[in-house]
Design goal:
The chain has 572 residues and is α+β, with helices and mostly antiparallel strands. Helix content is 33%, strand content 21%. The chain is built from 18 helices and 27 strands. The protein has a 6-stranded mixed beta sheet. Strands 12-11-10-8-13-14 form a 6-stranded mixed beta sheet. It has a 3-stranded antiparallel beta sheet with strand order 15-18-19. Helix 15 packs antiparallel against helix 16. 46% of the residues are buried.
């Protein structure tokens, strides 16, 4: 509470009744550097999404269903935990007319409208971030260089991509396009960087003005002469001049990204221009992977599947005789991945949860929560890697000699949903909300469900979560050939266990039709399956999938692992 009380003193001095602390930094990336994770600093909540509202006498932490349980454990002592979208500030501050401060560089107009629409709050921009004023012992990292993707990793050069983007902007009569999403800049210029622990993104802003040379605003310490020479069509400028530049844009039709353009920049551009606040068209362009990108991604998944499978075999053989806990297990998995020369780093924090910890959807093992893997438990591991060149994400639920008929029934229902997604008959009008329904169908028959989407888009050696496509209740984006999406239905029983089965899929054309193709190659634990609940078609799907897994992974296995692979991939 000491930090919260210090923050309260600061906002009271400015005649404010409260202050908003979001998870994101000024670049709105999913994973925030530790020295910019203001939400974690003030609340101890470590999840990837949330927003704190600190008032004079009460504090609220707003999270989605993935993090409800985690937030209560980490922050429930000092915060009232509110699960969105079921409840929003409107529901908890009872129409009181109060003045709430915020940092306009950390919020978009869209996010503020989502949280504070219908309230009587007066939102007051505060020039200096108040959390930064009380956070005096921050650690700063040395800037690391941006780098170019090699030709073997891409099909389209950066000039061609800019040309494609300009065609779209021309149709919309846009004079000035401001790119604020780091992932989109990385894709557009075929560059990568080290500005995130889990994604090779490049924190920067990109300005594309009609009849002018495009400008990349970034920390110039991250740019060397070689990169400048290869991106000769682009002008490089220091990030500190971005305000000056935007203030000089006048009488233009300006396009900004509603997902990543902060209110501070939006207001600056709105003064002297006509703003069209829309989704950056780069998201759509980026979602369609080229043949080379798909082929490289397939290779990455084979390497990743080999590492994961070796780990699963090791775990099954050793959990009884050795004292293996969640942290030891996730470190062992990382070591298996590191043995591959193409592995760079994890694509997100590994979820390694046994027994009741598996029920925390985005669980992260700590010294305090760390559990030993015990006989009779089930163990959930959700992990992924960034490879040269590809991004992986896979979840497996493993039986540690669990004999519960109820667990097996639920696991089989989750598997039936997983197979239903993988087998979904796609067409040009298919959207994620339609697929989401079939994923939940078999759980809903017995009044069970899960509090997250069924699938998210995945980048190409970029963010492990990317849009616009997703498999979720409200997603209306049409699926197209070249898209990659996860398939991850699950079920979570608080205090007892969690189940999730996740593969990545790519959309491809076969005989003139669109189909899902499994990218992930790793065995699904057959000992958790109630075969009687599977149809003949579902059994054939599982046997066919395991046949593919065996074919792709056999060359990576030693003698002992080969025996395990044969058993794991045998027909049911």
């Amino acid at each position: 509470m000491e930090k919260i009380n210090k923050l309260r003193k600061l906002f009271r001095l400015q005649n404010l009744d409260g202050y908003i602390v979001p998870k994101n930094d000024e670049f709105f990336n999913e994973y925030v550097p530790q020295n910019k994770d203001r939400l974690s600093f003030i609340s101890k909540f470590s999840g990837s999404y949330g927003l704190a509202l600190i008032l004079k006498k009460k504090n609220f932490l707003f999270v989605d269903g993935r993090y409800s349980l985690q937030a209560k454990l980490q922050s429930g002592k000092d915060f009232v935990i509110v699960t969105i979208p079921q409840k929003l500030p409107f529901n908890v501050i009872n129409k009181i007319k109060i003045k709430i401060g915020f940092d306009s560089k950390l919020h978009t107009s869209k996010s503020l409208e989502f949280f504070f629409n219908k309230t009587n709050c007066e939102l007051v921009p505060v020039s200096d971030n108040l959390v930064d004023k009380i956070w005096t012992n921050k650690k700063f990292n040395k800037p690391k260089k941006f780098y170019l993707l090699p030709k073997k990793a891409i099909d389209q050069n950066y000039k061609s991509k800019i040309k494609s983007l300009n065609k779209i902007l021309l149709k919309k009569s846009i004079d000035f396009h401001f790119v604020t999403a780091s992932e989109n800049i990385a894709w557009l210029l075929n560059i990568r960087g080290n500005d995130s622990e889990f994604s090779p993104i490049t924190n920067a802003y990109f300005a594309l003005k009609k009849n002018s040379k495009p400008v990349l605003y970034c920390d110039l310490k991250k740019v060397d002469k070689f990169l400048r020479s290869k991106l000769s069509y682009v002008k490089f400028a220091d990030l500190k001049f971005i305000d000056l530049y935007l203030n000089e844009i006048r009488n233009q039709k300006v396009s900004i990204d509603s997902l990543s353009c902060c209110l501070y920049f939006e207001h600056m551009l709105r003064k002297n221009n006509r703003i069209t606040n829309r989704i950056d068209p780069i998201y759509d362009l980026k979602s369609i992977k080229s043949n080379r990108e798909i082929n490289n991604t397939i290779k990455s998944h084979i390497h990743d599947g080999a590492a994961l499978s070796k780990f699963l075999f090791w775990l099954k053989r050793n959990y009884k005789k050795n004292k293996i806990n969640e942290i030891i297990a996730q470190e062992k998995l990382l070591n298996f991945r590191k043995k591959n020369k193409n592995f760079k780093f994890s694509s997100f924090p590994t979820i390694s949860g046994s027994g009741p910890n598996g029920a925390i959807i985005h669980y992260k093992a700590s010294k305090k929560s760390n559990r030993r893997l015990k006989e009779g438990d089930i163990y959930l591991v959700d992990s992924g890697g960034q490879y040269n060149y590809g991004t992986t994400d896979v979840t497996r639920t493993i039986s540690l000699n669990n004999n519960s008929d109820r667990v097996k029934e639920i696991f089989t229902r989750v598997l039936k949903g997983h197979i239903a997604v993988a087998s979904f008959k796609l067409n040009k009008m298919t959207t994620g909300d339609k697929i989401d329904k079939v994923a939940r169908k078999y759980l809903k028959k017995v009044n069970l469900d899960y509090a997250h989407g069924t699938g998210h888009g995945v980048g190409y050696f970029l963010n492990v979560h990317e849009g616009p496509q997703a498999i979720s209740k409200k997603n209306k984006i049409n699926f197209k050939a070249g898209m990659i999406v996860s398939n991850e239905p699950g079920y979570y029983e608080p205090g007892k266990f969690g189940i999730r089965i996740e593969n990545l899929l790519n959309v491809r054309k076969k005989n003139g039709k669109m189909i899902f193709n499994n990218l992930t190659v790793a065995p699904i634990d057959k000992s958790l399956i109630n075969k009687k609940m599977l149809s003949k078609r579902e059994i054939n799907w599982l046997n066919s999938y395991h046949k593919k897994v065996f074919f792709e992974l056999k060359k990576f296995m030693n003698k002992t692992e080969m025996f395990d692979l044969k058993e794991a991939c045998s027909k049911i």
